[in-house]
Specification:
Keywords: Repeat, TPR repeat. The protein is globular and about 75 Å long. It is mainly α and 525 residues long. Helix 21 packs antiparallel against helix 22.
């Protein structure tokens, strides 16, 4: 977790009318139930394939399968997406297995830059610090740790560090099959040294990555009982409280963490908590402080990207692009910076440049956020076939993520509301709201209700999404459209105007829809 634009898929909010011959509500519901059942079968097939034991000897969590190229992994995902669209049958099963094999084969051995990394790496000759490894070259760290635990299988600290590195790598390469490896590594560490804080803190990070934030909070609290100064546990605790919507507690946790372990990971979380409360000035100041203390290229890239995201959300695209440039100068393979740069390019009017950059991102890490962003850019230029392919890839990733134990209802709700099945979007949004009540889940539920034709029910949630002071143009756009649909024209004009003044290029389709809605409201005066 980190200051972000939301790791979930932020849809455009584009208005659409049902096509002629659209299915009835009962037909849509039946189709949605059939798709959920199909996804469950697929998830089972993927899980079975991805958890098959390796043929080589040694501890399961330490195995290093053959290197698959990034292109192979993405091609497998694309074939899987096509199979999902076609439906069930032997082809779907074979593609599920292909996807699992490709994703797991590349999970340990493929680096972010696509280089051949199957060559041998020297083992670790001594205990290694988790933070040093996680902030460095993760692929090298993982290979070194695997070699180390094969040689010294009773090193509980190395097992915990290996699990942590797998979690962090999954965040960047979008491969949720890594989580099962991380889980086994943490279990091995705890079996060797019950209750050790490094493994407990790692389990907290793993639970957060899987969006099980209640479990993340529990693991973090247990780790902090053992070691009150564990940076990872302190940070995971902030993340969990934020994602559970417990913002006041998150602010207190950030203050405690800042007192105990001041540094880049804590500073960035402290800034995000302030941003959620509408205090952008303090968030900006703290991030600049963090950038000034960043010790290595990875930290510089991380903090500069956070600053870029903050400025882009305020409509300051030129400043945002300079921050992304600094991040990429420090680490030219930092995917969040590439994605941020693409979104800032699109917002500033360079749609062709944005498409080129996002194509680089999704080729290396096909996550829902950049896939939807790229699909909307294709749609904006009239290339609907390419847009549909990106949205289908989101469905494929969702099935794989569920197989890896990740809660993806927020991602599903946001993508499906604009580019899929409104009934499925509403189901997912309600499920996520029942689990955690944040500004993001409130916005997702509001928009899903509106897209399902239930705007009156949506309005309280849209208002709740904007009640903390957090300023997000997509939230304001959704609220304005819902206010317009419920006859609150004056409020709708205010919300839509605020969205476009804050971040006029927040989404190629959403910004266009907001301007069209404002034009309609003005014409009706």
């Amino acid at each position: 977790m980190s200051p972000r634009t939301n790791d979930g898929t932020r849809g455009s909010g584009q208005e659409a009318t049902p096509p002629a011959g659209a299915p009835t509500a009962s037909e849509a519901r039946a189709a949605s139930e059939a798709r959920v059942a199909s996804e469950a079968r697929v998830a089972s097939e993927v899980r079975a394939a991805s958890e098959a034991p390796a043929a080589s000897e040694g501890p399961a969590a330490a195995q290093a399968p053959r290197a698959a190229s990034t292109a192979e992994r993405v091609d497998a995902l694309r074939r899987f997406a096509a199979a999902v669209r076609r439906g069930r049958g032997p082809h779907l099963t074979s593609c599920a297995v292909l996807l699992a094999v490709a994703m797991t084969a590349g999970a340990v051995a493929v680096g972010g830059d696509g280089r051949d990394v199957a060559r041998a790496v020297p083992g670790v000759s001594r205990a290694v610090d988790a933070d040093v490894l996680v902030r460095g070259d993760l692929d090298t760290a993982i290979r070194s740790l695997q070699a180390h635990v094969r040689e010294q299988p009773r090193d509980f600290g190395a097992w915990a560090t290996l699990g942590t590195a797998q979690v962090e790598r999954a965040r960047t390469d979008g491969d949720p099959s890594r989580y099962a490896r991380a889980e086994r590594a943490f279990a091995r560490s705890l079996a060797l040294r019950p209750g050790n804080d490094r493994a407990l803190a790692g389990q907290a990070a793993l639970a957060a990555a899987r969006h099980d934030f209640a479990a993340a909070l529990d693991h973090a609290d247990r780790a902090l009982e053992r070691n009150p100064y564990s940076e990872r546990a302190l940070c995971s605790r902030i993340d969990a409280l934020v994602e559970l919507g417990r913002y006041e507690e998150a602010a207190k946790a950030a203050t405690v963490a800042d007192r105990r372990r001041p540094g880049v990971p804590v500073f960035t979380r402290y800034a995000y908590v302030r941003e959620l409360r509408g205090d952008v000035r303090t968030a900006r100041r703290v991030l600049h402080q963090a950038l000034g203390t960043a010790a290595g290229p990875a930290d510089v890239a991380y903090v500069a990207t956070a600053l870029g995201n903050l400025e882009r959300g305020q409509g300051r695209y030129g400043i945002a692009l300079r921050h992304y440039a600094r991040a990429l100068a420090a680490d030219d393979a930092h995917l969040p910076a590439l994605e941020g740069r693409a979104r800032a390019q699109a917002s500033a009017g360079d749609r062709a440049g944005a498409i080129t950059t996002l194509e680089q991102v999704v080729t290396r890490s096909p996550l829902p956020g950049p896939l939807v962003a790229l699909g909307e850019l294709y749609e904006d230029r009239g290339d609907r076939a390419k847009a549909r392919e990106q949205y289908a890839l989101v469905d494929a990733w969702t099935a794989l993520a569920r197989a890896g134990g990740v809660d993806v209802d927020l991602d599903t709700a946001l993508a499906a509301a604009d580019h899929g099945d409104p009934a499925e979007a509403l189901r997912a949004a309600r499920a996520e709201w029942d689990r955690r009540r944040t500004v993001h889940t409130a916005d997702a539920l509001a928009w899903a209700l509106h897209r399902a034709g239930r705007s009156a029910e949506a309005l309280p949630y849209a208002r709740r999404a904007t009640a903390t002071g957090y300023r997000d143009a997509a939230f304001l756009h959704h609220r304005g459209i819902i206010e317009k649909a419920t006859g609150h024209d004056r409020a709708a004009r205010a919300s839509l105007t605020a969205a476009l003044e804050l971040d006029p290029g927040f989404s190629p389709l959403g910004a266009r829809a907001a301007r069209a809605a404002l034009k309609d409201l003005e014409a009706a005066r």
